[in-house]
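Hey team,

Filing this mostly as a record. A colleague (T.K.) asked me to run one chain through the structure pipeline before their review meeting, and I want the input and output archived in the tracker in case anyone asks later how it was produced. No errors, nothing strange. Just documentation.

Input sequence:
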Amino acid sequence: MFKLSLSQSAQGHAASSHASGAQGFTALQARGFIERLKSFYGAEFNRKWAGVQPAMLEETICASFRAVSPEQLARCFKRISTSSCDFCPSIPTLLAWCFEGEFLSDLEAYRRAGDERITDPLVYETVRRIGFWDMRHKAESQMRPVFMEVYKAVKGEYMGGARFAIPKAIAAPKSIFEPETAAQKAARQACAAQAIAQMRGQMGKECRA
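Output structure:
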């Protein structure tokens, strides 16, 4: 099961890597990264990845870190060296450490989602998937947990190489809150449901690992 999830991860990000123009993470870099992890975690590294073929682990790291810059990778190693955790982190955790400090906090992102003119591309993409009208008019108790899940999915896609932008056509603040058609609502709800389902599925795989 775990080997399958690794393979799916490597395949699932290929398209966005090409679209974003990321230069990629080479096999040589992946091997060096693995050796650094072994030196930090020793037996814990071997225990965590005992059931995974080295070539599969290398392939997965190449796919997962393809959008990571040398500076971001250095940030990850710094976090590893200062972390008090004895266990070997998962690949999603290591990837998150590379981007640490580059995103708005969940609470700040949610606060900005209520602004009439959203200026953060990741917040805009999150609200776009959920629906501007719903974010504007539905109860916070209903929308806040949905926002948090979708925002987490959007951040994951960004770390994988996807890039988001606020359309230039949106000039007036009120324009993003105009009522949507039935077709627009159905498409938006399907997009949000898919993002949440993918995130929950990934969380389940991580727990089983």
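Quick notes for T.K.: Confidence is low (pLDDT under 50) at residues 1-22, 171-175. The two ends are 9 Å apart (CA to CA).
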